[in-house]
Amino acid sequence: MARKILFQQAINEALDQEMARDSTVIVMGEDVVGGTGANGEMDAWGGVLGVTKGLYGKYGNRIMDTPISESAFVGAAIGAATCGLRPVCELMFIDFLGVCFDQIYNQAAKFRYMFGGKAKTPVVIRTMIGAGFRAAAQHSQCLYPIFTHIPGLKVVIPSTPYEAKGLLIQAIRDDDPVIFCEHKALYAMEGEVPEESYTIPFGEANIVREGSDVTIVAFARMVGFAQKAAAALAKEGISCEIIDPRTTSPLDEDTILESVENTGRLVIVDEASPRCGMAADIAALVAQKGFRSLQAPIEMVTPPHTPVPFSGVLEDLYIPSPARIEAAVRKVAEYA
Amino acid sequence: MMAQDRIVPITMPKWGLSMTEGKVVGWLVDEGRELKPGDPVMDIETEKIANTFEALDPGTLRRKIAAVDDVLPIGALLGVLAPASISEAALDAFVTEFQASYVPPVVEEGESGPAYQWADAGGTRLRYARTGDTGPAVVLIHGFGGDCDNWLFNQDALAAQAQVYMLDLPGHGQSTKAIGDGSVDALAQSVLAFMHALGVDAAHLVGHSLGGAVAIACALAAPSRVSSLSLLAPAGIGADINGDYLRGFISAGSRRDLKPLLQQLVANPDLVNRQMIDDTLKFKRLDGVDNALTTIAAALVDGNTQRISLREPLAGLQCPVQIVWGRADRIVPVAQADGLPAAIAVHVIDGAGHLPHLEAANVVNGLLTAFIGAHA
Known about the structure:
The complex is a heterodimer of chains A (336) and B (376).
Chain A: E1 4-6, H1 7-21, E2 25-29, H2 55-59, E3 63-65, H3 70-82, E4 86-93, H4 101-108, H5 111-114, E5 124-129, H6 144-148, E6 154-156, H7 161-173, E7 178-183, E8 190-192, E9 206-209, E10 214-218, H8 221-235, E11 240-244, E12 247-249, H9 253-263, E13 266-269, H10 278-289, E14 299-301, H11 312-318, H12 322-334
Parallel strand pairs in A: 2-3, 2-4, 4-5, 5-7, 6-7, 10-11, 10-13, 13-14
Antiparallel strand pairs in A: 1-8, 6-12, 9-11
Helix pairs in contact in A: 1-7, 3-4, 8-12, 9-10
Chain B: H1 2-5, E1 8-11, E2 21-27, E3 34-35, E4 40-45, E5 50-54, E6 59-64, E7 71-73, E8 77-81, H2 88-101, E9 117-121, E10 124-131, E11 137-141, H3 155-159, E12 163-167, H4 184-197, E13 203-208, H5 210-221, E14 226-232, H6 243-251, H7 255-263, H8 274-284, H9 289-300, E15 301-302, E16 305-306, H10 311-315, E17 321-326, E18 345-349, H11 356-359, H12 361-374
Parallel strand pairs in B: 11-12, 11-13, 13-14, 14-17, 17-18
Antiparallel strand pairs in B: 1-8, 2-4, 2-7, 3-6, 4-5, 6-8, 9-10, 10-12, 15-16
């Protein structure tokens, strides 16, 4: 039996192993050390959720706390990447990335293209996504479709500890800017993770569960919800195949299309807002390239097109649930 | 109760140390069918692998209890064998009593799998697993790209009469990925150092494919430490080898690339399930694996020809040798088992490919236990 660790430990281990392997890897962000000039016990904090705990003691000045000025330190990380470092920059919540858009989508995403392939920007921006923490509209969004929209950025969304470690190491070694989205609700998830370093290639979907009746494509926390739904549906005789694309840019179109070729029915589960989200994007892909395979209309399970509510009751209703996934699968399975 | 004496339960088997439950993929026989030991009964999938479960007892299949897609713990009731003279009511009573008294084995937290351990074999860190308390030492050596989990269907049968050691060769599994020149001789030295580190003076070696060549090299380098050789589709005793498979295995980066390759290993391609592909991909993604496999393959083959020839030295060995091969082997041709000295027992298994210890586990286990028992 392989060793099991938590999702957040897998992130920590990826950072630790890459910092040990490559001295150009640095980590920067708000409170990633524990406080400016901290050492010893002050180091124990390691970010708001302790993900970078222990790195300061090992790597000293290669992990640095930044002022609460996202536009400044994200820009600094991108600049450092163009000059030969491999910064892993943590911007606590994806909701705050709005103030750094020029740095990210006009600068980092464009350098390789605009300098004729002669420049590279190997920066990783780690950021938290997702609702469910009673953190209201400005700390709960799943804004990865916005970054997926930008050519030149790679967008990664791990759903398990194994994915988290392998995708983060791949992100650090990648020469392009990567937006690395960590769902808050997954940090305490436990799973088997090799102790050695490894990489998971981008654009290679994971088939989480094989099935023959309905294809479910899901991201991040929704992968686990889809598994719950699929287990319940199996008892009713509905066999679901679950695909976790793992990266939205690049997107593994072939695995999705091949699966729909076999099942003829598709449900996409996306915690992002429905308009111009991944659900809409994948639905369009399959409608265009997999039309002849389809035996039922495509179902999308997403939140409503509203901000994430502060009311706990409403927030619970807002997040796609296993029950809603089950209902959507039944609907496409029964469609004749 | 007389009637129940003739009712025989079919229960979820335990394949390997880590198996706690299995999923019923499908029944291969209908109710009313007369079964004899070895007849295929159902396909079962574990978290590691899918395989066909064969009848252990003779009898008529009267009841299917487990349904397709059921996930059941080991020992759970799958079906019932009984002669036609047993009444339906008696069957009902048997099933009711079995289900009422059946207690799934408790899986202790943290003890749900085999205890992988690490040995320092002359400065090389090797992972291994060990099972079986008494009897002669047996060391199982996997093939190219494999690991110590490849013996899932064999380890328990051997452990009944031997102390079984399964290691990850250098460059494989979770052992060190530093492999030096990657030659068969170097790998053999690692196996001998592994035995030394564990205080195993001499052992029966069971080697599959590349591991077969390694086992022969061990016997040549240290004859006194090898009690017998059981070689499963071994490399090293003929010229031809499917080098395209080896190169494809190394370069395959995705499930899509890897699946058709792994299917070349077996006669029945359905045995290659998602988990087997995933586990192989997870191994291949580890840092250093690509280099290790490339180096080992370069030392082993040139195009579709083997670089090493251990055929003549093998014939000169003093220790007992047996060879087991699947007739449908698409990696190393079974014809290489022809023309060996009569002292070497050769067993060719119909319906098996390059992984006879997986595809014909019961047959291979019988051959291994009898051979090792005879030379213990």
